[in-house]
Amino acid sequence: MSWEAPPLMLKRRAKSAPALAYRLFRPKEPAKVSVLLTFGYFENMGRYREVIERWNARGLLVAAYDTRGHGQSEGARGHILKFEEYVDDLFELMGELERDDGFRRPGPPVLFGHSLGGLISIHAALRAPDRIAGLALSSPYLGLSLPVPALKLLAGRALSRFVPAVSLDAGVKGSDCTRSTEISAAYDRDPMNFKKANVRWFTETVRAQELAIADAPKLNVPLFCLQAGDDKVALPSATERFMERVSSVDRQYLRLPGLYHEILNEPDRVTWIDKFAAAMLGWRAAEQGVKLESRP
Question: Number of folded domains in the chain?
Fold first, then answer.
């Protein structure tokens, strides 16, 4: 699928649910692995063009989408009423993608999530582990590194309860996310990125973070996680606590000193893009090996 073509639009079963914009990128040869990519708050799927191209070149089929209220998807910018809406959206889109022979043929997809997308993907894996092949996480948003003034925090909680549509300046800049000056500048001028955080979104994600860490022992799927060591957005210690609690036997975790939040947009990003591809391909190879060994 070309980036220049209009995205596909998933019209929803529920009339109140926003339509979701998504794209499906196929490798030249039959896909070895299917990946469903969910990105972070404020951004849009267009920022993952380089990642997707490199993964396609390795034989990965990638489906990317704009979460509700982001990019070309419908919905108020950054707004949710309940965190579960994100997870419901993911599974409805997955159901649509499973109708595609190319997406379905390699078997259950890998969920890849960056930042907020990591938190969404964790909850999806907890809800239906049998529907996925593994979980790949980039600086998952399991805690907030940026300090929030106490007065702003109190105001946000009150507004979330009584005026949930309100959004406040988040103060996140491109330079908080990556050391690449070029990508940082592109982040700041991207018209599809937004700058305010919705108050209900904030309180709902805090609740979702707490639940993810509490329920981590229930998680037993293949898991690969890279966490930026100098993350100014997602709290590294929260990621480490989560990884210590999961029950996954096949799990790998690396904290990368000196890297900022967007690992896949850092100056040495090719290394980490390829490490994710290798991990996801490795799960597929291991699965095929088990199937071969089980044959009489």
Answer: 1
